[in-house]
Amino acid sequence: MKKIKVLVNEDKCYLCGGCAGVCPALAIRVSSSWQFFEDKCISCMICIKACPVGALSYEEVAQ
Amino acid sequence: MKYDVVVVGSGVAGPIVARDVAKAGFSVLLVDKKPAIGTPKQCAEGINVNVFKEFDIPYDKRFINREIYGARIYSPSGYTAELRYDKVSGVILERKVFDKMLAYYAAKAGADVWARTEVIDLLRKEGKIMGVKAKHEGELVEIEAKIIVAADGVESTVARLAGINTYAPPHEFDSAYEYEMIIEGYDPDLIHLWFGNEIAPRGYVWVFPKDEDRANVGIGINSDNEKTAKYYLDKWLKENNIPTKKILEINVGLVPVGGFVRELVKENVAVVGDAARQVNPVHGGGMYEAMKAANILAKWIVKALEEENLELLKNYTKEWWEVEGPKMERLLKLRRAMEKLTDEDIDVFVQLLGGTDLEKLAGGNYFEVVKALMKHPKVLMSKRRLEILKALL
Ligand SMILES: Cc1cc2nc3c(=O)[nH]c(=O)nc-3n(C[C@H](O)[C@H](O)[C@H](O)COP(=O)(O)OP(=O)(O)OC[C@H]3O[C@@H](n4cnc5c(N)ncnc54)[C@H](O)[C@@H]3O)c2cc1C
Ligand code: SF4
Ligand code: SF4
Fold it and tell me: Binding site, residues of B?
């Protein structure tokens, strides 16, 4: 499986916290900003599909 | 800082727990990361009118936008079924005011309340959970508490940090997107729901009126869908020629619609509301369930503190599963069966429902209605349709 880094489009994101809720690895924290913890992420892409507005995308990273 | 109880999250569940525990004379701190409790909201704001009595909440016009008398559902080909009472059956709230007032009632009952305070971790000493670590305007604060309540909504980080398993696969969430907008031509005394696999996969489109011509217009779809909720809502509005030039507010959010949490308590931490996935799996409404669970939890917190026996907290899990569990499991089964409906099935059901005594159905006395439907040839000939109805019995 490819290793990814999740990217947020801050102009689209509503900071609703939904992606943090579906993430099985607690790799996202949503407070007054959207934060990603790459070391925790298991590259499952669940958050990307779940975002109601499509604010998330990804880029591949070298393993 | 030391309290008997710290409640994380001041949505619907949190303030009810805080209020009821404070009323019993124990010290409570209620925190929320939002600078203004209730804002922004993630909700269509519809709720049954009975909750005010059941949970001792004032029927205060400051947070009631509109009284509702029933519902109308629409099938993909345009069949409708309507349920209208002569008495008020539900209300469309103003959540921003409602949530803040719930926190106000908690404060009045004796709880301390702190907005703009984000819990970032648990406070552990010698392996035991002693409270929470929080951030308030950039400052780190340690809050000691005998009991920690995770009422932090769909994100559910606090419970997970404590080791409570609130995980469920993405299919057990709905993704939701909503406009508060000017919309005309829909009876403002009813809520309106549209079903169909092309319209809203797994979920529905809703119009919840807040005024004659102003409504929450939103959608929920399965969160593992390739397309976004926004995509489907915009498509529906366009196909129905509904102008989108007067948008007052946009809301987005996720709703847990299944995968209930088995163990709601671990040591001195309890999880409640959306964080515990206590949401009606069929319609995605979570406010009632959040209040109901908060009510049960508060009762056991008070008992545990009175008798200085934290083991008693576990009775919250037991009582929730006894009181709410069976209903929720049944609704989940129904939701899973409904997911298999084709558009043609939906047409048939809505058509048949349109010709039945819907009041009986809504009153919970749906046994007869379902039985009658099961005898209809269009249902009898379809295994899938029969299965759906069987799930209801
Ligand atoms: C678009 C949409 C429409 C909906 N429509 C309806 C409806 O019409 N009727 C209905 O009954 N339900 C509806 N729901 C569901 C309903 O909104 C929730 O079920 C309900 O709000 C759950 O209440 P809660 O108290 O558990 O969580 P929430 O109301 O989500 O409250 C959780 C609170 O915790 C705070 N928080 C989170 N993490 C932290 C932290 N680390 N530190 C401090 N604070 C934190 C958040 O800021 C938030 O205020 C809808 C949901 C969505 C997304
Ligand atoms: S789900 Fe989407 S809108 Fe919500 S916080 Fe995550 S990225 Fe932002
Ligand atoms: S890809 Fe998976 S693990 Fe990584 S942040 Fe998204 S949901 Fe979490």
Answer: 13, 32, 43-44, 46, 95, 119, 274, 286, 327, 363
Residues 6+ apart with CB under 8 A from B382: B345
Per residue in B18-51, pLDDT (tens digit) is 999 999 999 999 999 999 999 999 999 999 999 9
Cα distances (angstroms) measured from residue B301 to each of A40, B7, B21, B265, B295? 34, 12, 7, 11, 10
pTM over 0.80: yes
CATH classification for the domain delimited by B169-254, as one of 3.30.9.10, 3.40.50.720, 3.10.50.40, 3.30.365.10: 3.30.9.10
Query: Using only C-alpha atoms, what is the Rg of chain B?
Result: 22
Q: Which CATH number fits domain A1-57: 3.80.30.20, 3.30.70.20, 3.40.190.290, 1.20.1250.20?
A: 3.30.70.20
- What φ, ψ does residue B144 adopt, rounded to 5°? -85, 140
| Mean pLDDT, rounded, for B201-217 | 97
B 5-44 near A (Cβ less than 8 A): 33, 40, 42
- In chain A, what are the domain boundaries? 1-57
Query: Pocket around ligand 1: residues whose beta carbon is below 6 Å from it?
Result: B 8-14, 31-34, 42-47, 118-119, 151-153, 155, 157, 176, 178, 218, 251, 253, 255, 273-275, 279, 285-288, 290
Count Cβ atoms within 10 A of the Cβ of residue B9 and give its class: 0-12 exposed, 13-18 middle, 19 or more buried: buried
Name residue B37's amino acid: I
ipTM of the complex: 0.96
Paired tokens of B86: 């002569």
Tokens of B170: 């993405």
Inter-chain CB proximity B154 and A18 less than 8 Å: yes
Instruction: Specify binding-site residues of B for FAD.
Output: 13, 32, 43-44, 46, 95, 119, 274, 286
CB atoms < 10 A from the CB of A57, how many?
13
| Domain at B1-63+91-167+256-329, CATH from 3.90.180.10, 3.40.47.10, 3.50.50.60, 1.10.1740.10 | 3.50.50.60
Domain segments of chain B: what residues?
1-63+91-167+256-329, 169-254, 352-389
Gap between the Cα atoms of A33 and B216, Å rounded: 26
